[in-house]
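Example 9 (inverse folding). The structure is encoded as follows.
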């Protein structure tokens, strides 16, 4: 079907990216266009994979190859033609942790303004010279505190930090800070050559010797006789016997500090950090700036203090100064002018950030501690003030993390961008945002292969008549109403007392056991501080379990809140296990995938090993793993692709020419199970595999659960790196669901509905309710009113964000909370209760 190009519209012909079925469509410019459809239907493939990728491709064609390298390039989209497309800016949710370290102040550029203000309009001590703006930045040599080099903390390695268990001998790895494996043995053997007794407990060695091992700057090179005893080494030295090799020693502290400062590996850095102590810098008290810079004040505060106050207070303070400055600074008219200019700009920028519900953040807050939704809104605020026009902003679920009370403000910010002459393409699941759209593109009808069609593209009203659309039901036909009879209140409660952390101050909170509880409140009110931080840490401490180590790059103690006050005063006798189901990636390499993560691949490999052909060749289950040398392709080490370095372009990945992307060697691929090779199994979708493995109970059951959480469209071999946060979370949930039945488990989920269409949310709720019916407790942090309406108990935190939050405003059944006079949630919740 050939479409006419229509002015004022973006025309797309023949889009085939991922699962898109060669679709054509027209979407208006200068409008708020919302892309809807269930998870996996193809919304992102259209909005980001096609429209944004095409806009970026055209833009990059116009820049130099050198500049091109600096972009994170999207692959060239599978589409015949796109016309009428303006340049695009993508504000995608960053999944996982951003790699570069930045703060709210640097991302918003407000820190620059503040430095200019301090430099040119600050109050200097009498006689002090004017300091340049850079002198107020801890990241410049002019500004950085010389004691801590602008880090705010000093790091040190002590005997206690490097030798945690002094009853061990050196051979038993008393010096835990030393490297493991060969290098550690090397140091041990060098010490033997130097005459140390490596089989004496550390604490029995003389202090002088211990100090030398830990703190020496010397790096002697000596003959090493690998794995000789002290006596044997002495004899060998006497005989001038040929050593195994010459080894160079390094003191433990030197090793730790050197590794921490120089390693490229996040894991090594994290390991080194483990053996260091950090304390607040005594010179700058953590403010990271040199004394001269901190002596300059504005409105009675130094710039460090000003960076620590909430944006809302900063906004008020600048507003007050604006009113004052003209009158107060008669003596320094030029200073008054500077204040006027900079403060006006600050106030305008801050206002947008407050409107987007970010007033509780401070400038110094580091971006890795922000949720993906907060970061996206921060970047949106920068755009609203950027005065760009004629561009299309492509956004990914901007309502994520927002309470409905905050969503209104988000819509106003989007309106502003539109009024300035821009187009907005937004992937969304929030019904309020859909209702507000000028135009809806509904993708479906289902996910993966069963999706990829445009069910509707037009003004919202028209969607009502589209039969195949799941979205239409929720928007127009009452499917959005929730019918849930809350389970009767249990007599057992998990009781938290005196919780103090972030904005929570001595808060008491009771969570009913064996029920479904939703904790809600505006963004920044303290929900995550209470549930994902305090509750999780206290419960795991009680259970004596350590949480799975964070995969992220180390931040030492820096980003961790310093104080966790509070305790559990009752209810733990009914909690045997804690399970966190979050949106963190399930692995960072393509070596982890759906099948390996859920454990179902183990069963599949056993099925292959049990075939007569495999038995004849003595292939065991390990042979069918692409992570093991026996069965994998040697050329690509089982990765399926190889990296090709290009001179002026980013490196690209190409399918491995030997195994053609199958990851296995030819001999392994000869083994078939029911006519399919192991590589072909990994290509199956969960839905197809569910049919294929009929009769193999263990595999079949795992697949069944994956389908139940709405992931039937994923391929078994889908690499972890291609999964969205929401998909990763549902895979974790499915993995847990495979083993329910024990009861007494506490499940905690932080915003599980992010990335989910209302129809997916309903599926998720069914699964979570099964957990509760089996005697478990489920606690979710949520803004989704339909989840609240479907819960047994609600705890509403507020009333506001940051300093204005941190209290329990209302709690009870959904019907009770909907009646509360103080709760900001009540009115929104009432709409969905029937
Ligand atoms: P939505 O945004 O509606 O949730 P997506 O556009 O992300 O859906 O996905 C549509 C289909 O394309 C799904 O079957 C998904 O598994 C597949 N897909 C998404 N990203 C990739 C990718 N990088 N490579 C291959 N398939 C992908
Ligand atoms: P919610 O989950 O309701 O959005 P949070 O618990 O994340 O709220 O935040 C509550 C308050 O604590 C906010 O003022 C927020 O800025 C602050 N806060 C949260 N996490 C951190 C952190 N890692 N470092 C500093 N402040 C934090
Ligand atoms: Zn310092
Ligand atoms: Zn290969």
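The amino acid assigned to each position is listed next.
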């Amino acid at each position: 079907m050939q479409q006419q190009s229509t002015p004022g519209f973006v025309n797309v012909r023949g889009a085939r990216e991922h699962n898109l079925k060669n679709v054509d469509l027209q979407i208006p410019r200068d409008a708020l266009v919302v892309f809807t459809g269930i998870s996996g239907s193809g919304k992102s493939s259209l909005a980001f994979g096609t429209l944004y990728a095409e806009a970026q491709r055209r833009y990059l064609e116009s820049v130099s190859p050198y500049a091109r390298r600096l972009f994170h390039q999207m692959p060239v989209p599978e589409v015949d033609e796109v016309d009428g497309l303006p340049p695009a800016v993508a504000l995608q949710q960053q999944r996982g942790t951003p790699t570069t370290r930045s703060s709210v102040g640097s991302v918003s550029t407000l820190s620059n303004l503040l430095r200019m203000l301090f430099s040119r309009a600050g109050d200097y001590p009498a006689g002090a010279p004017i300091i340049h703006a850079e002198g107020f930045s801890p990241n410049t040599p002019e500004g950085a505190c010389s004691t801590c080099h602008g880090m705010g903390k000093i790091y040190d390695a002590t005997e206690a930090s490097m030798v945690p268990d002094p009853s061990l001998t050196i051979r038993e790895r008393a010096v835990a800070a030393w490297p493991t494996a060969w290098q550690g043995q090397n140091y041990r053997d060098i010490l033997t050559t130097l005459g140390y007794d490596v089989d004496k407990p550390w604490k029995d060695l003389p202090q002088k010797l211990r100090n030398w091992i830990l703190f020496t700057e010397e790096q002697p090179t000596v003959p090493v006789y690998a794995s000789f005893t002290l006596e044997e080494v002495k004899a060998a030295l006497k005989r001038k016997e040929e050593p195994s090799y010459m080894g160079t020693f390094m003191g433990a502290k030197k090793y730790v500090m050197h590794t921490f400062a120089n390693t490229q590996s996040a894991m090594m850095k994290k390991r080194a950090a483990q053996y260091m102590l950090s304390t607040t810098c005594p010179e700058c008290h953590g403010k990271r700036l040199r004394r001269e810079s901190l002596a300059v004040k504005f409105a009675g505060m130094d710039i460090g203090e000003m960076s620590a106050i909430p944006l809302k207070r900063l906004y008020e303070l600048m507003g007050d100064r604006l009113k004052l400055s003209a009158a107060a600074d008669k003596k320094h008219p030029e200073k008054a002018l500077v204040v006027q200019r900079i403060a006006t700009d600050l106030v305008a920028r801050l206002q947008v950030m407050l409107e987007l519900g970010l007033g509780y953040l401070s400038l110094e807050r580091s971006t890795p501690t922000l949720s993906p939704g907060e970061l996206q809104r921060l970047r949106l605020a920068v755009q609203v003030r950027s005065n760009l026009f004629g561009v299309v902003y492509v956004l990914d679920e901007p309502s994520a993390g927002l309470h409905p009370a905050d969503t209104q403000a988000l819509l106003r910010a989007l309106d502003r961008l539109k009024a300035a002459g821009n187009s907005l393409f937004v992937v969304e699941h929030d019904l309020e945002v859909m209702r507000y759209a000028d135009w809806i593109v509904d993708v479906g009808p289902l996910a993966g292969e069963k999706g990829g069609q445009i069910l509707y593209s037009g003004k919202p009203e028209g969607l009502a008549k589209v039969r195949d659309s799941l979205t239409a039901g929720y928007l127009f036909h009452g499917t959005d109403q929730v019918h849930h009879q809350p389970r009767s209140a249990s007599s057992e409660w998990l009781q938290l007392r005196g919780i103090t952390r972030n904005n929570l101050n001595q808060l008491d909170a009771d969570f009913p056991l064996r029920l479904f509880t939703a904790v809600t409140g505006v963004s920044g009110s303290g929900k995550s501080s209470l549930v994902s931080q305090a509750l999780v840490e206290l419960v795991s401490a009680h259970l004596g379990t350590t949480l799975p180590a964070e995969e992220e790059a180390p931040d030492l103690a820096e980003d961790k809140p310093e104080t966790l006050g509070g305790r559990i005063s009752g209810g733990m006798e009914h909690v045997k296990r804690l399970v966190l189901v979050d949106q963190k990636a399930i692995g960072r390499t393509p070596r982890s995938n759906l099948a390996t993560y859920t454990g179902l691949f183990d069963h599949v490999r056993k099925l292959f090993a049990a075939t007569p052909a495999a038995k004849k060749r003595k292939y065991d289950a390990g042979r069918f793993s692409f992570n093991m040398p026996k069965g994998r392709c040697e050329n690509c080490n089982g990765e399926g692709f190889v990296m090709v370095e290009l001179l002026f372009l980013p490196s690209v990945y190409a399918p491995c020419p030997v195994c053609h992307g199958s990851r296995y060697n030819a001999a392994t691929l000869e083994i078939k199970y029911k006519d399919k090779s192991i590589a072909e199994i990994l290509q199956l979708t969960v839905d197809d595999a569910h049919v294929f493995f009929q009769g193999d109970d263990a595999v079949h059951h795992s697949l069944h659960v994956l389908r139940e959480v709405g992931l039937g469209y994923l391929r078994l071999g889908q690499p972890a790196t291609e999964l969205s946060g929401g998909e990763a979370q549902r895979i974790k949930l499915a993995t847990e669901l495979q083993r329910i039945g024990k009861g007494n488990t506490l499940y905690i989920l932080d915003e599980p509905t992010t990335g989910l269409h209302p129809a997916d949310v309903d599926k998720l709720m069914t699964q979570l309710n099964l957990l509760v019916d089996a005697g478990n407790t489920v606690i979710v942090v949520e803004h989704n009113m339909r989840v609240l309406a479907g819960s047994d108990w609600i705890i509403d935190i507020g009333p506001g964000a940051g300093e204005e939050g941190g209290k329990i405003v209302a709690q009870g059944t959904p019907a009770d909370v909907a009646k509360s006079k103080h709760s900001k949630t009540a009115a929104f919740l009432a709409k969905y209760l029937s």
